[in-house]
Amino acid sequence: MSVKADSVVNNNNDRKISKQSLGSNDNLAPKVAIVETFGEDQSYRYSFTYEKATLYEFKYEKAAKPAAIDPCYRCNRRVLAQDQVDIGVLFHKQCFRCRICGLPLTIQTFYRNDANESDREIYCKTHVGKNVAQIKSGEVPPMGIEGPSTGPGKKYIFQVTGSKRPLPATPPKPQMNKGIGSSPGMDSLASISPRNMNDTSAWTTQTSPNMSMESTPAYENYRPHQYIQQQQVKPSPHPKSFLVSYEDFENADVFDAQLLLEERHREEEERLLRFLMEEREKELRRLDDAIELEKEKAADDLLSSIENLSITSSIPRSLLKEERLKVVTEKIATEEKTRNGKMIDRHCHEMMTLIGEKDRQMDRLCLFDHSMKPPPEPPEGKKSSLYKSPAVFEALDLRALDLANKDYNTMTDLVRDLTRTCKTELEKARVLFRWVIAKDVNKHSVNEIVRPHATDRLLKGVKSGKETYHQLYKKLCSYAGLHCEIVLGYSKGAGYKPGMRMDGQTFRNSWTVVNINGSWRLVNCTWAARHVTGHKDNLPQMYHKYDEFYFLTDPEDHIYQHYPDDPQWQLMEIPLPFSEFLNLPVVKSPFFNYGLRFYSNYGATLNTDTGMVEVRLLIPKILGFGSMLEPVHRQPSEPKQIEGRTLLRLVNNEAIFTIALPASGLYYFSIYVGDYWKSECLESACTFLIQCTNMKGRPSPPYPPVPFFGPTPVMENLGISAESNIDPLVVCNNDFIEINFVLSKDIRLTHTFQYFDVSDGSITDIDRYVFLRSRNDTGANYLIRCHKAGFYIFSLFAADITGEAQSLDCAFRYLVICQEPSPTVAMFPKTYQKWHRCTLHEPLTGDLRVDKKIIFRLDVPQAIEVFVVINEIWHHLKHKIGCAWEGQVSTGPIPGVAKVYARFQGATKDQSIFSQMLDYQIVDDAETEI
């Protein structure tokens, strides 16, 4: 099985270390995991993982000796001509990354350590001239951001493993020249941060930018963290707004001032609307005049051609009014949206300036200025640090939905009513968000559905197409004193499949960011409200559900779907290159809503040369899953979906999908998820492109048509656990395999055992090849035999013994693969109802040969007598210690049936009744030959 999901070398040991180092989502401190090992043969392995951007998991392995021809300077392996980057030394394209952090580099962005001519490695701007020892010790910011003690609340947890080698602690002095392939110009290390790089230093306290390393006499002994400790530089917290709650706005008379400003804004909107209508009419008149002139000219040309008996001209395409009208209309609409957007931006800024003036009127020493937009920076803390569940907003959500049924003439009155119970910026952002998406129902307000003639002045711009819901949300935020910006970029929305290109206007989109408590957060009102459930109880009012994922989305999750034109608005400490964004799997919001995570950093394209691919998901609980495998290039006569080529196993907290391709080619593989394991309605979670250019060997056979293998919630509900074979995929190459279940209480159990025939796809019950060897209140022991090669399905069903349910639910399902069956495989004896608390030690073979003396040993609790009946001859078994019964019985010369009976104490009113326990078949020697 081979999956090429990343361009760098990956190995299991490093992967486990990285996974452990990342920790839980609740720990907000960024973690840096570094693994550096040296082999006895001089081979070298290195990995660098940073939690805040787990997409950057840099790993590589350097061979002990370079290749004889064209070796890569990074990994020592040969570089082919089509895969090389030549900068004096050769690199693979996938190896052309920063030596320290693995940031992908280009010819324009890489740096060389000019201070050390023997160092031919390449670095990013942050790590040029640095070595691994400095990164490990925390002396150098690991990703070009604030150091361990300089950023506002930023700390790093370093986890270093691997063999150690003493490295020089003092970096060489870099030169000052900067250019392609040279060292960068030197600023103070202590002052480097996203804030001063973005020219927004007013928000933080920084060290002096004039103190460069070049002018420091003692640079050879310079240590950034020592300097910071000596100067006692402490991060400045974000300035707090003076006006936050509804009471603050009311007491400062903000709403009254907003009404006056809104009236002026409305007059300007009306003037712009009249102007745009006049411009539209002028453009359409000009189009009509141009078409009339062209018609007259075309008629004259046609008449001249008829007179000269040479009809060679044809009606020009310019006379097609519909096409030209469409082009002109689109041009006018674009200009109208642009002008309207600029006006909205100016109005929002004026509204924030008004609130800033009220701030200063209330407190002259207020440091926060509403008119000053905070710089785009990664948020401090994840979404989970703001709220754990949307249930905390239940009252606000109900208020927003209730007010969505009411008409408002002014934005001020609407925001006043929406925020009447709000105490924090988070609550304001939430209630405005829920109101906007409540209005986003087929581009109609709820009132217009109930009362078709009702009008809503606030949505006039949205309905006319001149204004988007993002702009509406931005206007609402400005009235509530929240900074909000509209971000433009590309999105992997409807219709996008992995491997598709993104250029021009294809897949262009927009979304918003809102500033809450000094941190920018990502919000997408349009995508949050795109799921409409329809009508309820035949009432005219329309209900819809919303997508919680698109409210304050974490940047690490948001980047899977959206890529902004300005990398700063990724809000990630390491901006992702556009090529890396395209190489991410197509991930939808249900993936995150159900708490799924990728086990490894998969790319959008999974490459294989064996036809086998594996995708692992980390799951918080047992969920319902589905999948679809479809060829990219499909003939019309071919089915859209390829059945029987995906195997799903649930192992501990993982969902493991194994795909066996039927042939070489390109395939789309999609995973669907639902909340319940029996869910019939599943939502799209993620999609990959699988590429198999040349399959080695024969394709693997199809899998049984079973939804999944592994445990169900019934296991946990009834207190059942698998003592052995936790992985539901079991390979049988012996006489039999043993499966044990641990029980916490007395429950009802049953099972099925089936054989899947690959040739015709049929499934056959073969109960005589599975045997409940032992069963009591604490456990159940099953024996399974495979009589021929192929796939076997073992299913355990269970139910509470005190429950009223007549049927038993599936608790666990195994897939048994038999490659080489044993030549001595035989069936087990047949069991009956009374056997469920007994244990059979021997004989375990269900077929007994004639004229043989067989020793029977079994445990039968509460039995008074136990007999083996052969051809109406009763053989009494002796009672041993406890509940053990034992005896030697002759099978006799005639084939037939051997039955085991037992009489129990107090089992029935008549204790003379014998209950049948087991059945054996007595056969001739010829019948048992294989």
Q: How many strand units?
A: 42
- Residue share in helix: 10-25%
Average predicted confidence as pLDDT: 78
Biggest pleated sheet: 6 strands, mixed
Spatial gap, N to C terminus: 35 Å
| Contiguous uncertain segments of 5+ residues | 1-28, 144-154, 166-236, 441-455, 532-543
The share of residues in extended strands comes to 25-35%
Number of helices: 18
Tell me the radius of gyration: 37 Å
Query: How does the overall form come out from the CA principal axes?
Result: elongated
Assign the structural class, choosing from mainly alpha, mainly beta, alpha/beta, alpha+beta, or little secondary structure. Answer: alpha+beta
Keywords: Coiled coil, LIM domain, Metal-binding, Zinc
Coiled coil: 266-297
Pfam families: Ig-like_KY, LIM
Organism: Biomphalaria pfeifferi
Task: Give structural notes.
This is Kyphoscoliosis peptidase. Pfam families: Ig-like_KY, LIM. The protein is α+β, with helices and mostly antiparallel strands. The strands form 10 sheets. Strands 23, 25, 27, 28, 31 and 32 form a 6-stranded mixed sheet that branches. A hairpin with a 6-residue loop joins strand 2 (44-50) and strand 3. Helix 10 (425-439) runs antiparallel to helix 13 (469-479). The longest helix is centred in the first third of the chain and has 54 residues, at 254-307. The two termini are 35 Å apart. Mean pLDDT is 78; it is low at 1-28, 144-154, 166-236, 441-455 and 532-543.
